[in-house]
Amino acid sequence: MSFDEINLxxxxxxxxxxxxxxxxxxxQEQAIPYILERKDLLGCAQxxxxxxxxxxxxxxxxxxxxxxxxxxxxxxxxxxxxxTRELAIQIGDSFNAYGKFTKLKNVVVFGGVAQKAQTDxxxxxxxxxxxxxxxxxxxxxxxxxxxxxxxLFVLDEADRMLDMGFINDVKKIIAKLPHKRQSLFFSATMxxxxxxxxxxxxxxxxxxxxxxxKPTVEAIKQSVYFVSKPDKKSLLIHLLxxxxxxxxxxxxxxxxxxxxxxxxxxxxxxxxxxxxxxxxQNARQRALSNxxxxxxxxxxxxxxxxxxxxxxxxxxxxxFEIPNIPETxxxxxxxxxxxxxxxxxxxxxDSEEKAYLKDIKKLISVDIPVxxxxxxxxxxxxxxxxGNKEKTKSASRNPSLNxxxxxxxxxxxxxxxxxxxxxK
Length: 424
Ligand code: AMP
Prior knowledge:
seven-stranded parallel beta sheet, binds adenosine monophosphate
């Protein structure tokens, strides 16, 4: 199916063409026609699937068609609530890109920065509001935002809202929405609490599911090093000294861990920066832009800060600490190998983390090759009794360190400034 068959209006078609989008992604193909029919939607999809355009494009079309008939004062007619500032900014950029040939205006509001610039924009009038829950409630309570005219509501990354403890904020926001509205609900996973929440928001929803998690994981070359906690530093430095690693996103579980990692990497002359919730919005954006522009090779992140971040051509993901939630592992390594393209994921696992690794293997049902021949390896007696026993000759000769530029999934790797080629 092409975008032409979806019946999009010319200004959107033109914008998508400029973005270099030729074919809709599976989630776009499935979701856009239903949203245009004004149906509620339950979308099970993670970032990297094109889900932003799946909701942004039809919202722009619906609001644009309405604006033609109706020349009243600009009021917020669509609200998108998303868990992190980075996601909010990315969604705002997407609305700007897809709506550039329309007169619709959007504003992005998030915490951690002064509110004045945001409230000035709100006063000038907006059609689409993209917000993180805390700042949205804050500005609502101060009377800067009214949700009375919302026709289209999007809850993005609902499972992450739950993980981040935003669920009560989300419920408060929903309570202020008009009853007569269209709602779109997106979540990468559907745990029972999320299903319950979805039921309170949606009316007879159409269900759309794209589950690239397993195929994505399979396209990524994974490996694990068993190493003691104190030796992780030396091993990470050793790995990152390999020039074959063009860019690496290193994950830690905590903000403190991220800062500590950056400090020891910088002492080892490996230039790294961190992104996490304690950094100012500007510092996070700067680190991310430096990384995207290849000014720094290593970005150290916590899960929440990295969620949804779209980095083209990311060659390696390194789990400096193993996540305790198996789905998080899938999200992490999915930062590389986007849209089914190849990538490399390396995990450093200490004895306490072996149980987490076991859960991960169970979830992905893929064996993760163990690299045994390195100088920091854990005592043999500490090796896990289950799992993969595949041995690789040497860490420095480990083929998984060579990022295969020609793609290991056989798909086109051409990616320019967010443009993707989705093969059908
Ligand atoms: P998302 O899942 O919304 O974060 O999108 C992931 C990436 O795919 C972004 O860089 C988008 O610009 C890009 N993208 C979305 N839809 C398409 C499409 N139909 N064709 C090519 N690239 C796309």
